[in-house]
Design goal:
Elements: H1 2-32, E1 36-41, E2 50-53, E3 59-60, E4 71-73, H2 75-82, E5 91-99, E6 104-110, E7 116-120, E8 132-134, E9 138-140, E10 151-152, E11 185-193, E12 199-205, E13 212-216, E14 228-229, E15 232-233, E16 246-252, E17 258-265, H3 288-294, E18 300-302, E19 316-326, E20 329-337, E21 352-353, H4 364-368, E22 371-373, H5 380-391, E23 395-397, E24 402-403, E25 409-416, H6 421-424, E26 434-444
Parallel strand pairs: 16-19, 20-26
Antiparallel strand pairs: 1-5, 2-5, 2-8, 3-4, 3-7, 5-6, 6-7, 9-11, 10-15, 11-12, 12-13, 14-15, 16-17, 18-19, 19-22, 20-21, 23-25, 24-25, 25-26
Keywords: Signal
Protein name: Surface layer protein a
Signal peptide: 1-30
């Protein structure tokens, strides 16, 4: 009887063990049934694809329910990234995968490139959900009371960025080629990093308008006693404005209404009200006429050259301006030469290039030609100037690396095709987006990227 009981117990335990194994196996098989049925590269504007983790889902090497998916960042780690105070821990979404279960997974990467993988995004491919949600990485800030006459604190160290660092994926430094320590910069925008709260100004080199970008400015410009603000400086503190040392400037629109004002203060000593300004300069080394041009209100342009020959201290100079609009250029591929190889996710005809796809420059003349009177049609002269500036780039190297099935590296070179430029843009007004066609040629080899000002690219 003891023997029979022992056998019965053994058989019972064996049955239980088999049942347990079967249950685990069934669970694994059920999980492995999810398969990716479609993948798609996201093509909306890059800044609209900035996202933040919610902490509800982990990050995986593959969509989480697909066989072989491994954890890149646990749910707990994603929760920490969700509550981070660093912009580097935001994500950029760049592709989407859908499974046969109807689930959506987004492939994302942190702004610093540390974490990359798939995160659950809900059941709707039209909105971020589940493990991520949309993020505003910067917030608009008020412009300073002074917007012109700034210099770089150190030209060799204080560079400009096409976006405040880590607020956009692969934010990069702007080429400072040709910039001198005597160049003055004008502020046109201000923003703070949402997480850190640090303040940045968007500045343009008054002597080289093709050089522009974002720079950290500490607490920003406060008043006439401000000397240094982060990467910008005024050299010496500006004196308080009096009738004996300053000239007021009032900007008027076509209706004669004031749309802005500024005050120029001389660096010269012992000047008196009523004295002519002549060729005097302020502490930043800027003359009255240049100060007037640099300080015009945003979205306006001077209606004519301002004559300051008779300007005197203690008086007001009235400057007529007209509403202005600035266009950007959408770069579209109309021809692809892929004879060099076969790569994953290649570019195709009608693909639109973004600033992250290439490093291209536009001459000062080309950038100036993009701005004109609001509502007016582009002049042939300005279209030709833009076309000439685009053509001066020759073959522009792309900024992305592509690989074939064997891991070999490739990149694209882009060549402007001017034949249809004027025709494509014949009905455009200033402020409209211009279209420029480019040929994309696949090139085998490693890519040495460079930086450039890309604020003119749509």
């Amino acid at each position: 009887m003891q023997s029979r009981l022992t056998k019965t117990l053994y058989l019972g335990l064996a049955a239980l063990s088999l049942g347990a194994v079967t249950a685990v196996s069934t669970t694994a098989n059920a999980a492995s049934k999810a398969k990716v049925t479609s993948t798609k590269k996201l093509s909306s504007a890059p800044e609209t694809r900035n996202v933040v983790a919610t902490g509800k889902n982990a990050l995986y090497t593959k969509p989480g329910t697909v066989k072989g998916a491994k954890v890149v960042a646990s749910k707990a780690k994603m929760a920490k990234l969700a509550n981070s105070k660093k912009s580097a821990d935001y994500f950029r979404a760049y592709s989407i995968a859908t499974t046969n279960k109807g689930s959506v997974y987004y492939k994302v990467v942190t702004m610093n490139g540390k974490y990359r993988g798939y995160v659950y995004g809900g059941k709707n491919a039209d909105a971020f959900a589940g493990g991520i949600t949309s993020a505003e990485t910067t917030k608009s800030a008020a412009l300073p009371s002074r917007t012109a006459g700034f210099k770089l604190t150190d030209v060799k160290k204080n560079t400009l960025w096409n976006a405040p660092k880590y607020t956009q994926y692969k934010a990069k430094k702007v080429s400072m080629y040709g910039v001198k320590d005597t160049d003055t910069f004008t502020v046109s925008k201000a923003a703070t990093k949402t997480r850190e709260g640090s303040l940045y100004y968007y500045v343009t080199d008054a002597q080289r308008p093709s050089v522009s970008g974002w720079i950290y400015v500490g607490n920003g410009y406060q008043d006439a006693t401000t000397v240094t603000l982060g990467g910008l400086t005024l050299g010496t503190a500006e004196a308080a404005a009096t009738n004996d040392n300053s000239v007021k400037i009032v900007y008027r629109d076509a209706a004669g209404q004031s749309v802005g004002n500024a005050t120029w203060i001389t660096a010269a000593a012992k000047t008196k009200a009523g004295d002519k300004v002549n060729d005097a300069k302020n502490v930043a080394g800027v003359s009255l006429s240049d100060f007037i041009a640099n300080s015009k209100p945003a979205n306006y342009k001077l209606n004519a050259t301002v004559d300051t020959a008779n300007a005197t201290y203690g008086n007001t100079v009235y400057v007529d301006v007209v509403a202005a609009a600035t266009s950007k250029i959408q770069m579209v591929i109309d021809n692809v030469d892929a004879k060099a190889g076969t790569v994953t996710n290649p570019l195709g005809v009608n693909d639109v290039l973004s600033a992250s796809d290439l490093s291209a420059t536009l001459s000062t003349a080309g950038i100036n030609a993009l701005t004109g009177t609001q509502g007016q049609a582009f002049s042939t002269t300005d279209l030709n100037a833009v076309k000439t500036a685009l053509g001066a780039n020759n073959a522009v190297k792309g900024a992305k690396v592509y690989h074939d099935a064997n891991g070999k590296s490739y990149y694209y070179e882009f060549t402007f095709e001017p034949e249809n430029f004027n025709g494509d843009n014949r009905t455009k007004n200033y402020g409209d987006t211009l279209k420029a066609s480019f040929k994309a040629t696949l090139v085998e080899g490693k890519l040495n990227t460079t930086t450039s000002n890309s604020n003119w690219i749509a």
